[in-house]
Amino acid sequence: MNLTLKIWRQENAQSSGKMVTYKIENISPDMSFLEMMDVLNQQLIVKGDSPVALDNDCREGICGMCGLYINGRAHGPEYEVTVCQLHMRSFKDGDTIVIEPFRAKAFPVIKDLVVDRSAFDRIIQAGGFISVKTGNAQDANAIPVPKDNADLAMDAAACIGCGACVASCKNASAMLFVSAKISQLALLPQGQAERDKRALSMVRQMDIEGFGNCTNEGECEAECPKAIKMTNIARMFREFYRSTIFTEE
Amino acid sequence: MAILDSKVPGGSLESKWDQHKFDIKLVNPANKRKFSVIVVGTGLAGASAAASLAELGYDVQNFCFQDSPRRAHSIAAQGGINAAKNYTNDGDSVFRLFYDTIKGGDFRSREANVYRLAQVSNNIIDQCVAQGVPFARDYGGLLDNRSFGGAQVSRTFYARGQTGQQLLLGAYSALSRQVGEGAVKMFSRREMLDLAVIDGKARGIVCRNLVNGEIESYTADAVVLATGGYGNAFYLSTNAMASNVTAAWRAHKRGAYFANPCFTQIHPTCIPVSGDYQSKLTLMSESLRNDGRVWVPKKVGDERQPDQIPESERDYYLERKYPSFGNLVPRDVASRNGKIVCDEDRGVGSTKQAVYLDFTDAIGRLGKDSVAAKYGNLFDMYHHITDENPYEVPMKIFPAIHYTMGGLWVDYNLMSTIPGLFVLGEANFSDHGANRLGASALMQGLADGYFVLPYTIGGYFAGTELDKVDTNHSTLKELQNDTKEKSEKLLSIKGNRSVDDFHRELGKLTWDKCGMSRNAEGLKEAKEKIPELRKEFWQDVKVPGTNGEFNQELEKAGRVADFLEFNETMINDALNREESCGGHFREEFQTEEGEAKRNDEDFTYVAAWEFQGTDKEPVLHKEPLTFENVKLTQRSYK
Asked: What is the Cα–Cα distance from B568 to B264, expressed in whole angstroms?
């Protein structure tokens, strides 16, 4: 396959960026998208140009580190796939592919296609946990969890924190991410004690970080590589309203 | 050569850990905040250690090179975590888990460590459930178990095919809570590049800030490395792209011995290589071997599609050779047998370097829905990567490097040969011997971080005089300068070959000569070639950009430079160990049936290497292994 790539290049957070066009040839349809980017970078290095910076690590679709906006879609054209699991067979010979970073006010660009998603960490730090010190636990089977709830909690817990939901949303809302964690813990008996405080703290931090609101359009669910459902957002609202009634804050 | 003291406490196997915990000197709760700890790495071992130490009151600084602590490669573990809960009532016990692990490791691990691991395994499950880890459950709401290789009981807890992810997010949530409370200072996008040893004790680290390139130094009263394994020594592996040996290797160069580096694990169920551009290999959980049947055609060079090959012309070689364990033999046995049939030209697929893993019978017996419920995400992943639907066509699999049992030598307290330097998880060598059983890596990482280090580090603090050290100390200033110079040197070469190009060549050489099987001739060849390649690297590598910026090529260059040194030590170790055991298969030492043949008389020891200089031979130290509670047997899974 021969392709034209239009890639966002930006020196650092302070500088302004631009789209740069590259031609690339002899790409195998069995390559992953990131292996195609490896080929491009090897060529740039040998030519003495600066390679394109992009985050990636596990290349198995689970670490959540990769994330590119490809032809206007987070993680590219396939559903339920991260960029690292996207293959070139999803494109055609002669295609022009536009590659941008995940864009959001709360995800500032570090370089080229690499963005700072530490806002997600701070949201978890605000309340995305159950406060149990090491060594305090009772026997695991002392807390039965109905299978349906356990399965729903697992569905929500599958979030990889990549930020595709934010990048896909016109409001740059992080509600799918935040609601996935709130749902997981609200669905489990272990999470009940801190249920109200958790919803309040995490939503507050989400707002501080500058993420937008939800206007129910569903791009987040459509583009989520792990198929996290918007019903979690509904559950988050319920938890949030509950918390405003049951806490003194 | 010195004999290494493992500091294993006395008493019966069952009482050692409890007695030791009582004997360890304590640090008064009010004094704990006066002690600071650096934890490098945020995987299962690092995150659980950082969180648990902070909960105790220690002042913790935690580092990772990824953009977030939640990305550490523990996240990619799929299948499960072992524990001796015996919830399935099939006769499991702490002793059985201990025995299986010792035997699975081919009797090259320390009895006391492995027993302790089995003892705390149950606490881990309790802890994780309390954190909200959504383990699989049955309709009564209780925890479900599955079987794994090398065991005849069902003791593996799992969260679909994402157990590592869920356990890591559990540890990450505990860590995040401590970060939120200000008890842990978190430094992401920082790579440790040197260890400061002051007055003979580990007192700090030097890091590169990967965002702006600044070389920073940090000090503490103890340093904990939880920096994972060195599987990327082979270039192609199932490790994450940035997994590396750098932190461990730099600590090794400062005096920490490296133990059993030749013990590397080849995982039998990976997706086969498809072309030269391949950047990494993808593992599929070996839990697939619960229901999948491994086979190749009986006939050499059979070109037919799998559905055209009748039952009578298929060789289910694992079931044939190992009737009692069948497809669930340990990883090393399954991998080696896969290689044997491919070497016989009975491999399948376009490269002929693959065997079938067939679910037809399981789908017929359980129905497609049940199979999908158990393995759905693995089947989807396989489908995405290969463009073949495993519900219809048998999967093709081939072994790949997956885990490294070797690592920095540690004593029973998880302290290395440098006082104050503790090493946890895959980065140490301690619990898996020559082969790790499935679902034991997660167990060990969390055991070390949640339940071992928090006790043993207190004993170190309570019994050690520690002067105040800050970042203005001359040693740290020197290391900072050295580190900067090394980066500048890499950037100044401006040669013709990219870092990846060198890495690929080194990896292929290491895989060919020190991979699934090894012999003296091949190892000697590699031992000659690696220094040549290293020399070429330092003359001809091309690293673009500058030090003072976000520079991923410079990061990689530093890691590959370390592999170019480390791999030679791995080769030395493989040459020294003139026996076959676990993942280390020396062709000269095999039974008549082609199984690994140990030499217990001469090699029942841990080989710990002391660094002498980059182009000098390392010195071998031995820790003799004594077995008082198990009888050394030739492993048999027949």
From this structure: 14
Summarised one tens digit per residue, pLDDT across range B344-367 is 999 999 889 899 999 999 999 999
Sign of CA dihedral B153, B154, B157, B158: positive
Is A136 within 8 Å of B130 when comparing Cβ atoms?
yes
- Residue B150 pLDDT exceeds 80: no
Residue A66 has pLDDT above 70, yes or no: yes
Q: What is the CA radius of gyration of chain A?
A: 20
Please, which residues have CB within 8 angstroms of residue B310's CB and are 6 or more apart in sequence? Answer: none
Average confidence score pLDDT of chain B: 95
Verify whether the Cβ–Cβ distance B381 to A60 is below 8 Å.
yes
Q: Which residues contact B308 (CB under 8 A, 6 or more apart)?
A: none
* Mutation for B interface: A27, A88, A129, A185, most B CBs within 10 A: A129
pLDDT of residue A137: 95
B90 CA to centre of own chain: 29
For every residue of B334-345, DSSP letters joined together read HHHHHHHHHHTT
Distance from CA of B375 to the nearest CA of A (A): 15
Q: Which of B122, B160, B176, B244 to mutate to test the interface with A (most CBs of A within 10 A)?
A: B176
Q: Render the burial of B82-99: b for 16+ CB within 10 Å, e for the rest.
A: bbbbbbeeeebebbbbbb
Distance CA A192, CA A190 (A): 6
- Which 8-state DSSP code applies to residue A129? S
Tokens of A141: 């089977």
Cα three-residue angle B15-B18-B23, rounded to 5 degrees = 115
Chain B contact present for A207, CB below 8 A: no
Percent above pLDDT 70 for chain A:
100
Give yes or no for a contact between A66 and A83, defined as CB atoms under 8 angstroms apart. yes
Q: Taking residues B482-504, report their average pLDDT.
A: 97
A57-96 residues touching B, CB cutoff 8 A: 57-65, 78, 80-81, 85, 87, 89
Residue B53: exposure state from Cβ atoms within 10 A (0-12, 13-18, ≥19): buried
A138 reaches B (C-beta below 8 A): yes
Q: What is the pTM of this model?
A: 0.96
Distance CA B626, CA B617 (A): 28
ipTM: 0.98
Please judge whether A116 and B123 are an interchain contact, meaning their C-beta atoms are less than 8 angstroms apart.
no
Q: What is the DSSP letter of A232?
A: H
- pLDDT grade for A249, boundaries at 50, 70 and 90: low
Alpha helices, H only, B105-239: 111-131, 163-180
Q: Where residue B1 falls among pLDDT bands split at 50, 70, 90?
A: low
